[in-house]
Amino acid sequence: MTTENLAGRTIAGYRLIERVGEGGTAEVYRAEHPEHGACAFKVLRRRLRGDPTAVKRFLREAGYGARVVHPAVVRTYDYGEAEGLHYLALEWAQGESLASYIAQHAPIAPAHVARIVDQLGAALAAAHQVGIIHRDLKPENIMYDPKSEQAHLLDFGIARDAELPPEERLTRTGFFVGTLQYVAPEALSGELVDHRADIFSLATITYYMLTARHPYSGRNPRELFQQLLRDPPLALSAARDGLRFAPAVETAVMRGLERDPANRPQSTTEFAAAFEAAVSAAPAPAEGGLFGALRQLVRRRE
To answer: Which of the following is catalytic: 51, 78, 118, 136?
Structure first.
């Protein structure tokens, strides 16, 4: 099937400059607007325009994103339908995906991680305050600009309104939404998922930035699914040979990964604050062996 390219067109006042990405449901363009300047312009893919469910989900993402206003959340400028196209216009966030940054730089120094986590904790808290649970928090859904050290949360495509009746927020056991490496255990067992699922995901991202490893190491989706349901996460200091963390840092991260949501911090800002306090009070992590020597060499060159 030939991919549709809308570059060069002006839609709802947005001039589409170039196509910069695509996903399963939408294509993304870099666009210009007289008032907003540079924008990200998402268009529902042509094959989905006649699918009421796909249209509803696309517009729901737009509506949820518009409700969350925070400096670390990509702003929603406009959304709707024009010329037969369902679109969503967003703030153009500088930088790259956090996933790309982690792939290049992890393990990342704890103090640096704390600055990122602080921004994400505040962004998620802003969503939770207006009743939005993100449910798909992962590095791919975060933009990060290394120059300014600014993080931006995006993609509310599978977010859920916490104010919906409980029966509308429950999922059947064995079915879940989100990304398995970052999803909270309760989302897999059919329990009622609330904002504390996002805390688990944020803790997983924190763990990953610190170690370049995930707290669960299943070799395939089935094994990972089972581990999340029954096994404790791998201790932070055991994630990578030669990399050790102060006990308070490990405690702060692992508390966010508690299986029982009641045992986690009760807000993303509480998690971020506890992690930052532990990092501030702790000496730099010890790195031994060849890995540690290489990291020290890189740091001296920086």
So the answer is: 136
